[in-house]
């Protein structure tokens, strides 16, 4: 969904309809197809007030618009493979480091990092954060990589900024934003 809004305005494409359409497209791309009519049925059943206005034709009509916004490119590479290899290479494959770094990578999906930075660099930033948190000195390992540490540290700062800002988000702020958006539509 974030990839759509990198190219299109939230005013142009209604977010709830785009969310439903992205869910439908994701099921098709992952070959666990959910029929659009079933999606509409269950969404209306789970969220009767918010999604009651959407019909099958709305999702199918938005499907092509979303695909066009994505340039028909549905593949997104993830940092998990790089993360596993890096942790093993740095001899940081103990349970605690694995849990912390995987948790940080999972949290990056709440941001748009995966759309802006290469997956391997996101993995390095997560390892960097976890190593500082666990007070493990892996400076020599990072130097052996010959990677631009300024870029890695910038990504790490984006992640840490996200954690800082995430604490201030409340349900009231989210509902207020949705209300303002509904008025614009």
From TrEMBL:
Enumerate the GO terms in the molecular function aspect: cyclin-dependent protein serine/threonine kinase regulator activity
Kindly list any coiled-coil regions of this protein. Answer: none
Domain named Cyclin N-terminal: residues: 1-74
This protein's species is: Arabidopsis thaliana
Its taxonomic placement starts with: Eukaryota, Viridiplantae, Streptophyta, Embryophyta, Tracheophyta
User: InterPro entries under this entry?
Assistant: Cyclin-like_sf, Cyclin/Ssn8, Cyclin_N
Assigned keywords, A-Z: Cell cycle, Cell division
**Signal sequence annotation:** none
Q: Know the name of this protein?
A: Cyclin family protein
What GO biological process, any one, is recorded here? Answer: cell division
Q: Which SUPFAM superfamilies match?
A: Cyclin-like
